[in-house]
Write a structure and sequence with these properties.
2 copies of one chain form a homodimer. Chain A has about 180 residues and is α/β, with parallel strands linked by helices. Chain A is globular. The two termini of chain A are about 15 Å apart. At the A-B interface, α3 of A face α3 of B.
């Protein structure tokens, strides 16, 4: 591990929230902002990981737990390699996010709750998944027939109703700059 | 992906060979040499991964296949993040190494066979595993009661009997410098 104090040391920024809440969009904008500063940054996006590392996993509770476990372990390897890792993953269960957190030393794990009401997510429905979940075509869908456990003590809560993506990214950057370890 | 031509672009250097053949030692020396050049380098060591990402896997054929699949997928993510990834993994089956190779574009995957005779590995036995495998205390041990399929067309074969680690690392660096993509 690099022990130099740099403006941003390697760490994981964990975005949790409902499907359609805006995690991927915020992750991409944040990655762009960090890369523009010359910082090695990489996004681990739940949807993308399901096409590779996690392609053997479904959406049962056990598979969701394993999905999050592997993602957290890969994030740990990448942080160890010196990268700022942005995780964009529904990660609906408190205990799984807690598992991820304890893999990292204090200050290296920032949990950010992308707070978008389910009604808004259903209205957006960018992938048409809520429509299928509401008719029962898709089972175990977070927020419909599977739980989403709202973070109780995240480092940051982003209100996607009041602010656009750029403003939310600025909030994240401000938070990181005041807490950099 | 970074499209700049750098002396070494991100890629995976895949070290395969028997337990005790010298993979981890060579990986560490190679990583040091690359890091000394300021290149972002990271080792994915099979033994280390079994304490984290792959801790749910055993040594059955199915678990070995899954072990290699995950390692290859993580290597792909890290290469995509701009890192030179050194994999040190017994990876005994040709088809699994072939699976790993096809995840990468031409020239981004370098397979290196660490060629150490099994008699020498048994004699070294740095972790005492061969002794246990020979008495049957450990089952499915590569080279004893599980196969090791020698690479038929690796990019490089390293002879650990004739050369020390530094000389072998120089051979790898020479190979990479002549084939850099």
């Amino acid at each position: 591990m690099n022990s130099n104090k740099t403006p941003f040391s390697s760490k994981v920024i964990w975005l949790t929230g409902l499907s359609g809440s805006g995690k991927s969009t915020i992750a991409q904008e944040l990655a762009k902002a960090l890369q523009d500063q010359g910082l090695p940054t990489y996004i681990l996006d739940g949807d993308v990981l399901r096409t590779g590392l996690n392609q053997d996993l479904g959406f049962s509770e056990a598979d969701r737990i394993e999905n999050i476990r592997r993602t957290a372990q890969v994030a740990r390897l990448m942080v160890d390699a010196g990268i700022i890792v942005i995780v964009a993953l529904i990660s609906p269960y408190i205990r799984d996010r807690q598992f991820a957190r304890q893999l990292f030393t204090e200050g290296r794990f920032t949990e950010i709750y992308i707070n978008t009401p389910i009604e808004v997510c259903i209205q957006r429905d960018p992938k048409g998944l809520y429509a299928k979940a509401l008719t029962g075509e898709i089972k175990n869908f977070t927020g419909i027939d599977a739980p989403y456990e709202v973070p109780t003590k995240p480092e940051l809560i982003l209100d996607t109703q009041k602010h656009n993506a750029q403003e939310l990214v600025d909030q994240i950057l401000n938070y990181l700059s005041t807490t950099n370890t």
